[in-house]
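We modelled the chain as a single entity of 218 amino acids. Its sequence is:
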Amino acid sequence: MLCSCACRQIVLFRLAAETCTAALPVSYCARLGRRAVQLNDGAIIVTQRWVDRVVVGHNLCPFARRELEADSVRYVVCEGREQADVLSALSAEFTRLNNEPAIETTLLILPNALADFMVFNELLGDCEELLTAMQLNGIYQIASFHPHYQFAGTAPADAENYSNRSPYPMLHILREDSVSRAVDSYPDIDAVPARNIELLRRLGREELHRQWLSSFDA
């Protein structure tokens, strides 16, 4: 079953910036059917462009612009290729968030792993099991993004899938209490998913795909 996240994954981008980078493999671009980019164009830089141009540009997350302007976004790259590498990186981020309360959340970028959305989607169950094993249910939640993201009940070409179509597979770790405070303070938060769907359908798949590709351009 395809993942359909609560509130269409309204994302709280409140993260602490980290300047690590990872090259974008040409082979990965080929697998995803997109043009190659220069190898020194880091995954974090590409992701930052996507957040700025798509998430903030279209106000898909009503909380994102404030945190982006505050330069409080933490981006982390897992360069591993195996599912075990992803789970290990995720565990490390949980531990880091436990030990560093000043960090609100982590965006874990996976440029070399899980290019197949169905495999990525299946791994989300393992991610939730890890959350439980570390006794962190109710403390953190995981939102997911992928270049081929597809919400339950949609067709692959439906425009609304682009709200979660990131340049790379990504896991977004959020603190539950921060999400609750943000949602409680925003008027008519339940209307945001429908507004996003209407906006994305109006823009259309062709334009959204063009904007998605622009994340790989300076």
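As a brief sanity check on the tokenised model: Residues 9-214 form one domain. The chain has one domain: 9-214.
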